[in-house]
Amino acid sequence: INAEYMGMENVQVDMRSLEIGLQDATRLQPQIIQNCKRHQNNIMLVLSTDLPEKYSFQLIALYDQLGEYLEIYNAISQADVPATGSKPNPAIQSPQRPSSSDSPSKPLDESPQRSQRVGDSDEEGSSEINELKAKLAKLKAHRKALNEESTKVREQLNDIRVKTTMQEQYVAEPPENQIEKLRERANITVRASHKVLRQSRAEVALIRATFQQVKVDVDKYVRLWEADLQKATMMCEKLCKQESKPFETLKKLYVNELQMRKKLYNKIQEFRGNTRIYCRVRPLNQEERSKGADGVDITTFPPNCSTEIILQEEGKPRIFEVDGAYKPNTPTRTVFEDALGMVQCAIDGYNTCIFTYGQTGCGKTFTMHGPEGLVELSVANIFETIQERVETETINLSLAVFEIANEIITDLIDTSKTNLMVHTSDQIGSYVEGLTFAPVATPQETTARIAKAVANRDSGEAHCARSTLIVQFLFTCENAHTGANTTGKLYLIDCAGSERQEKMCTQLGVVMERLQQNTKGDQIPFKGSKLTHLLQDSLAGSGKQIFYICITPSKLHVAESINSMAFAFRLRGVILGQ
Length: 578
What we know:
55% helix, 18 helices, single chain, three-stranded antiparallel β-sheet, 578 residues
């Protein structure tokens, strides 16, 4: 390395003198030690400057060599001083011949005491040499550590150079220019954000408009298909009355019409969505009205729009879009009209579910099991359909009532059966092993059995809040003309209170989200809970579901109402993903 570039002179000369002095103490001068220490300091100062990398490596190696020599010098100096610190140790001093003037010459055999002293000195010298060797080994290990540390120092120096360069560039520019540049960058970012926001709003508006138009078209086609279906039915009936002679031909046409009617009806339901979400708001009760400002109604229904509901959360409106929103004064019979198609599909051989979901006290049990509730209306519609098809189909109906609490299934028709397990077979799909199915033949018998089974349930509020009550109908149908057999299931499910965060309700949301993502069947966690395991063949494939999200209008329960609607929003993604 160029000494002039380093600002140092005679570095190699002084280091070589130090190396020679360590081998022969008589040639070591104190000034050499001082020069080497000064050179070490100068190297450190040069390394702190913006030095090319090839010089930095050489300087660090030179710095380490000087440090090693100085360490050896310090070790030798400490070894030369005895424990008392008064005189140098004669064992490591340079040997000097005594002059003739100092003492007279004597024969060797005349001085035994001197020989003894020389032997002692040799032993002491050997011991101290061993100590020096040990120290030298430590110094070598220390040198290795210094080499590793020098690598780290080299990396730190590179970081310091980068930071120093950035700071110099930053300081070199006046503060006014820096502030102006920062302001300009901020303005550019804000303008870009506003542009992206405007584009996003325009896209959202376009999507909403397109979606509304699609819904209008869907309703239009549904009405047209229903009208065509009704005309076809009337035409077939008319032909049957007018044409009595070609009865066999008409019979075949009628059978084909029945099959076509089922297929068209199922297609209509699929077109409306295999999964549909409805929201029902119950009226304020007396206790909520007595709370003053905390008991006010936080729900709003936009005019001329039956598919949106607005909840006020701390003065901020939250808009939720569903398939239908029912005001507090809507009777359950009107609510049931949207579930009527699910009952018909179950009789036609499909697996369907009707859920009521919400917090405890929101009206979900009233909607399902109350006077003229969904259960009672479903039973009435089932037997009306059986009576209508008595000439073309033989329909057998059986009933099961059970509950799931803490992942334990209990049969409510035969309460001795508890902790039942869910299994799956290729013939009948998912089923509860050992569950009691009671054959029923009339609406009165069916409602009486359901009421008796529900009465066997623990009526405690805490138990009811954490258990899910399920009424299952099993249909087996045989076509009188073709002999074809079909089997369908209808589940009426009153879910546990949403505030309990039951595992089965949480797992139900997870399964519906996986279905939304079109995940393969073996990757959907149906077996995560007994409810989803049992409903596996009703949630996937051609299964159909309706969710009635029940909420309270009071401000006291706004958090749980928002959570229930958020659950509906997750399910809503399944609808849009179909």
